[in-house]
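user: can you give me the structure for this one chain? tokens are fine.
assistant: on it. calling the predictor now.
[tool input]
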Amino acid sequence: MTATITRLYDDYASASQAVSQLERAGVPRDDISVVASNADNWYSGDRKGGRDASGRVDRDRDGVDDRAEGAAAGAGIGATVGGAVGLLAGLGLLAIPGIGPVVAAGWLVSTAAGAAAGGATGGLIGALTQAGVSEEDAHVYAEGVRRGGTLVTVRVPDGDRSRVETILDRSAVNISERGTAYRKAGWKRFDPDASAYTAEQVRKERDLYRRPAA
């Protein structure tokens, strides 16, 4: 039997670190998918390694070179975002209704992109529910991407589930807590007709949940 595991991250750097760890743990890249918000234009098809105008690799848009952050954390973020390999080398741009531009790669993407191309609402919702995610969680995941987050979805044999969840959970969002926070602020469910978030809105959203430095 195969399990599908999905996690939300507040920025691409955290998600790409998790993907790299999965690949090093032997999870085939064909079983991993990434869908990342590009509301703040951190990625473009002609940009090498996510560098900004000053030459920094700053895919999480926090003003700090991700390679330095990775070295400080000892987590290899710099290697991941500065010279993407594996699944992350195949990132491409597309648009999803209600979310706007995303950077994506992997098996889940073709389902979401097909729904979007066909004019179906909630292309990402449909892709997630087809993959086995509950509809309630799928709405929170989609809203999380709309607000600047990144989804990582993995197909694994049931016997590997615990091991893969341990890797994914290291820096992932608690989806239940995040859904509760959204609802307390008046949100009800993902709206495919809603306006996409601006770069400034994404920055403010991330600031709400940014973890204090250790």
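assistant: here you go. Residues 65-84, 115-121 have pLDDT under 50 and may be disordered. The CA atoms of residues 50 and 98 lie 24 Å apart.
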